[in-house]
Structure prediction request, 296 residues.
Amino acid sequence: MKELFSDVVYAYVNGDFVAPEAAKISPFDRGMVFGDGIYEVVPVYGGRAFRWEEHLERLNRNLEIVGIRVPMSNEQWTGVFDRLMSRAADANHYLYLQVTRGVAPRNHVFPDAIEPTVFAFVQKLAPVSSDLLEVGARAVTVTDFRWHRCDIKTTSLIANAWLRQQAKEQGAVEALLVRDGVVTEGAATNVFAVIDGVVRTAPQGPQILPGITRDLVIELMLQAGIRCEERTFTKAEMAQATEVWITSSTNEVMPVTRIDNAKVSDARPGPVFQRVHELFQQFKAEYCTDARRDVG
Ligand code: PDD
Prediction:
């Protein structure tokens, strides 16, 4: 059991800090029975939670949308984070936060009086593979059969897990999701494409998760004068793109150089990607040394 959790540093369940193998939640928890919960994945670089305020803001917003009581203040979350990190070594980590509606006899209707269940842990985060950064990843396109509230970061992730599995079974790193001909996002990433010299990514709305990395990448591009539009693109347009990349808290900015059985341009990470990657790494390095930007 201990071996299974060797990458997990320390866990938190409803007020208690415990070794990961000792963490326990009731099987009647609505997170278990209905996938009735909200979560966040926050990268931790050099001991600091990256874009911490933005992640907490999204967590609180999502909890309000689905009517789960916000269980603690941002300061209290910071306290949990600090204590979880007290056992972490100097490497990079990620923080997982999850709030489910709580424990109740099974009934679809939300119970009136219910205490949310709070679960968090810190886990080692492997650096993005340098091979993938140099050569680029392969992705496959699959039908986006998820629900119509993909903007909510819910723990009901069977569709996303299944779609990512389809990619894995085809030897690809990510599944690029296509709904009615339009590329929405990846199974666990946002997607960018350079089309006619302009960077494009799907606009915020119910079809995509408003990724924290996505928003930062857009911000960095605009500051650097790189043309970027939040406008959908079709699968056919993506096939003509000169560059494609994906973003997420665990993958940062990752080039995609093969989609299905075709190359993206000459199947090498392109110049816009290289520039965006550089801007991202620069921002990250500054963030880690600038305490003013961070409460974590
Ligand atoms: N996934 N879209 C989906 C469906 C995602 O699950 C994620 C992140 C993203 C990127 O969002 P962000 O930049 O805020 O990480 C987009 C996380 C990493 C996960 O589920 O593990």
